[in-house]
Design a protein that fits this description.
The complex is a heterodimer of chains A (396) and B (388). By secondary structure, chain A is α+β, with helices and mostly antiparallel strands. Chain A is built from twelve helices and ten strands. Chain A folds into three domains: 85 residues, Acyl-CoA dehydrogenase/oxidase, N-terminal domain (Butyryl-Coa Dehydrogenase, subunit A, domain 1); 110 residues, Butyryl-CoA Dehydrogenase, subunit A, domain 2 (Beta Barrel); 140 residues, Butyryl-CoA Dehydrogenase, subunit A, domain 3, CATH 1.20.140. The longest helix of chain A has 31 residues. Classes of the chains: A alpha+beta (396), B alpha+beta (388). Bound molecules: flavin-adenine dinucleotide (FAD). The site of flavin-adenine dinucleotide has 20 residues of chain A, from strand 1, strand 3 and helix 12.
């Protein structure tokens, strides 16, 4: 066991750290809390462009596509250093972490040339159009129809829960291109210009009050045939590639974000009065905070172990499912603990003058409900572990 | 970065597993646990021949001087096999304590005997108060005739009846002191306690004017030695607990694949699958925590104590919970004496109580994380550990 950084990793870290020190804008916190959603997004887009110009966007991508071919470890360092420097997040999250890598794996040369640079530079923002009203966990039940008509497809149907749908220029759309097919067969993965006539985006208000995700409606939308990613009818396998990336990368940033919140909570607990003493002195709250600390720490350790294993085996395995269950559920428990520490202040949301930290804990308390649903529900992750890791018979 | 066992450590682990499968299968565990001493001299000899008794004892005292990760790997297998008898208290408790407290000749004498497999040993700490802290000690040692004499009573002393010597923690002139008592010394009354875990015997030991053979350390040196030995033993214990969880997971999944109800294996029901999935998550998480704590001690990382408490707090709850699920998934069969689940469950409960339960260790974490100001910067240590 050796948890030290290698000389290459150290060099990578120091170089990045120096760049961040010189370039991270000082006004992000102000924009984060004061801007409207669209203005904030434009700010993040500009930030990603700057990151891109310096060669730090999409570091996990191979060099030939504008990345740095960064190892998993370097990706973790990247996330760590970004957090350490309080840098704004990159705007094109889905493009960088999910869709870009899928285009790299399945795209034609022309597609790679056309799409990849603009993903890196944030000139084109991407969303993911997989889920439908009747195809969530059972994604293969999707029905959005793509019919070939000469040199293009005509798309009709509805997608739902599309994060960044309101900001997106392009959509990675999973469709049924063979109307006589069922389930995993006959699907095609289309790259769809969101400005095409017939695309309608309706923001969905989520339980946090914001509208991070949308509904997408497609009425006779024309998509050039050359915008099929991978083979026609092989969309399921292409999408699976995306989902693997989804779970391999999710969680790395979350650990640091949760740890930051934890540290902040500890700081607050030293002055907040609970049950006749400070929260930090309350024996029950101490127990709960310590339990959160242990879980957050083990999340970090599980992650390092998973990275090591992936490095040895070369492919992401079931580690992603274990990790996702672990961090999403610990985060929900932690948010409850935070609320107990904060007492009546726990309810105050952004904008209230008495809210602690602009209501970050109230927000997280609500937002973390989504963590066990998005990117495959906890139940689905447990199904995956049951079948693919433990070898139990499929339940359905 | 490499998090986990190296190839050599994995080989060691496999060797231990093979050995125990051959020399101490479940049938043997059950036979031994019904005996009075739960000690098999022949098995002890074989383990000594494998070098296990000298595992963490330095080479100059006839040991192998293995590292913490090697220890954790081996202990994991011992926990998986539910190895009965005094290995843990001899090597990890008494051995680690003597190594950290004794002088050269004491180490030669006691560690050498342990490493060569000639002696078993144990530690007597807890008393009537059952509080594992030096302040709670009532046991008195006093200087007499160039030596030391002990008076008092100890509880929960592992395998005291067959130990060749006992390291006793007592008060000497108001200071904490570590003394060695040969178990054949006059004035000692050793009576069995009836612990839930039948694979490890515990005893009440009453000392009336018992002559100690050596004073290992007193005062600060004693406290330091206790602290370090306790950390080492706790890591070993968590590794052992992880091995137990691993075995419970294996037998439960196996059962879920073969037991049929409603015309299909019960493992096809999600209510069962999800219990198994949780068992895996807890087992793997305990393993990560155990390996990291071992590494932290080995490397002398400043947060080593925190890592140990994180591991023990987590594993204490996890092992018991894995046991709960194992029994539940086995149905009525899980409630029988003949099924092995309860043997592990009993071990889980007793391991939880040893060296501080989850509540105790969470309080340790609170002391280190909440009371210590300021909170350590998250990103510096996060994800990558320390950078050289
Ligand atoms: C914040 C957020 C962002 C999202 N972003 C996107 C996005 O950008 N693009 C996109 O395409 N989708 C997105 N999603 C959708 C997400 O992937 C789905 O919500 C998720 O897969 C679950 O599908 P569903 O909502 O239809 O729930 P359902 O599948 O109807 O599930 C309802 C309940 O039934 C359980 N269940 C269903 N099937 C099984 C089974 N076989 N075994 C056991 N339990 C089962 C589920 O676990 C859940 O508890 C997002 C969701 C959220 C919350």
């Amino acid at each position: 066991m050796d948890l030290n950084l290698t000389p290459t990793e150290l060099k990578f870290r120091d170089e990045l750290r120096a760049w961040l020190q010189a370039n991270v804008p000082g006004d992000w916190e102000k924009h984060r809390t004061e801007d409207e959603m669209l203005a904030r997004f434009e700010y993040l887009r500009a930030w990603q462009k700057k990151v891109y110009q310096a060669g730090w966007a999409g570091i996990a991508w191979p060099k030939e596509y504008g990345g740095r071919g960064a190892s998993l470890m370097q990706q973790v360092i990247f996330i760590e250093e970004m957090t350490r420097a309080s840098a704004p997040p990159l705007a094109n999250v889905l493009g960088l972490s999910l869709i870009g890598p899928t285009i790299i794996a399945f795209g034609t040369d022309a597609q790679k040339k056309r799409f990849l640079p603009n993903i890196l530079s944030a000139d084109e923002i991407w969303c993911q159009g997989f889920s439908e009203p009747n195809a969530g966990s059972d994604l293969a039940n999707l029905r959005t129809d793509a019919r070939l008509d000469d040199d293009h497809y005509v798309v009709n149907g509805q997608k739902v829960w599309n994060s960044y749908g309101w900001a997106a220029d392009w959509c990675a759309l999973l469709t049924r291109s063979d109307p006589n097919s069922t389930k995993h067969q006959g699907l095609s993965y289309l790259l769809v210009d969101m400005k095409s006539p017939g695309v309608e985006v309706r923001p969905l208000r989520q339980m946090t009050g914001e509208s991070e995700f949308c509904e997408l409606f497609f009425h006779d939308v024309k998509v050039p045939a050359e915008n099929v990613l991978g083979k026609v009818g092989d969309g399921w396998n292409v999408a699976l590639g995306t989902l693997a990336h989804e779970r391999a990368t999710l969680g790395a940033g979350a650990q640091i974000a949760i740890r930051r919140q934890f540290d902040r909570l500890v700081e607050l607990s030293r002055t907040i009065q609970r049950n006749g003493h400070t929260a930090a002195q309350d024996p029950v709250l101490r127990q709960k905070m310590a339990q959160s600390y242990a879980e957050i720490e083990i999340m970090r350790l599980n992650q390092m172990r998973a990275i090591s294993r992936i490095n040895e085996k070369g492919v992401p395995g079931p580690e992603g499912s274990i990790q996702k269950i672990f961090w999403t559920e610990l985060n929900q428990r932690f948010q409850q603990t935070a609320a107990e520490v904060l007492g009546p202040f726990a309810q105050l949301t952004k904008g209230d003058p008495h809210a602690i930290d602009e209501g970050q804990f109230a927000y997280s308390f609500l937002r973390t409900r989504g963590n066990t649903i998005e990117a495959g529900t906890s139940e689905i992750q447990r199904n995956i572990i049951g079948h693919f890791v433990l070898g139990l018979p499929k339940s359905y | 970065m490499q998090f986990g066992l190296t190839e050599t450590q994995q080989t060691l682990k496999n060797t231990v597993r093979k050995f125990l499968a051959a020399e101490c299968p479940m049938a043997e565990v059950r036979r031994l646990m019904e005996t009075e001493s739960v000690f098999d001299a022949a098995l002890w000899r074989k383990m000594a021949d494998q070098g296990w008794t000298g595992m963490i004892i330095p080479e100059q005292y006839a040991g192998f001087g293995m590292g913490m990760l090697e220890m954790a790997a081996a202990l994991e297998e011992m926990g998986r096999a539910l190895l009965p008898g005094p290995f843990f208290n001899t090597v990890l408790m008494a051995g680690a304590l003597i190594e950290n407290a004794g002088n050269e000749s004491q180490k030669q004498k006691y560690l050498g005997a342990i490493a060569r497999g000639e002696a078993t040993a144990t530690v007597a700490f807890l008393e009537e108060s059952a509080v594992a802290s030096p302040e709670a000690l009532r046991m008195q040692a006093r200087a007499a005739g160039g030596g030391y004499v002990l008076d008092g009573a100890k509880l929960f002393v592992p395998h005291a009846a067959i130990a060749d010597f006992i390291v006793v923690i007592a008060k000497l002139d108001g200071q904490v002191a570590l003394l060695v008592v040969p178990s054949k010394a006059a004035g000692m009354r050793i009576s069995p306690m009836s612990s839930m875990d039948m694979t490890r015997k515990q005893y009440e030991v009453v000392f009336s004017g018992v002559q100690a053979s050596d004073l290992l350390a007193a005062g600060d040196a004693a406290l330091k030695a206790l602290d370090r030995a306790r950390a080492i033993a706790t890591v070993g214990l968590v590794a052992e607990m992880t091995g137990g969880m691993q075995r419970l997971l294996e037998i439960t999944v196996e059962y879920a694949k073969t037991r049929k109800q409603f015309g299909r294996p019960i493992g096809q029901f999600q209510a069962v699958q999800h219990q198994c999935a949780d068992m895996l998550v807890w087992t793997e998480s305990s393993r990560s925590a155990a390996y990291y704590a071992a590494y932290a001690i080995e490397e002398g990382i400043p947060e080593a104590r925190l890592a140990v408490s994180v591991a023990k707090a987590y594993a204490s709850d996890a092992y018991r919970e894995v046991g709960n699920r194992a029994i539940q998934v086995h149905g009525g069969m899980g409630f029988t004496w003949e099924n092995d689940a309860h043997l592990y469950y009993r071990r889980a409960k007793v391991s939880e109580l040893l060296f501080g339960d989850a509540t105790f260790h969470r309080e340790q974490i609170a002391k280190l994380v909440i009371d210590a100001q300021p909170v350590s910067k998250p990103s510096e240590a996060a994800a990558t550990g320390k950078a050289k």
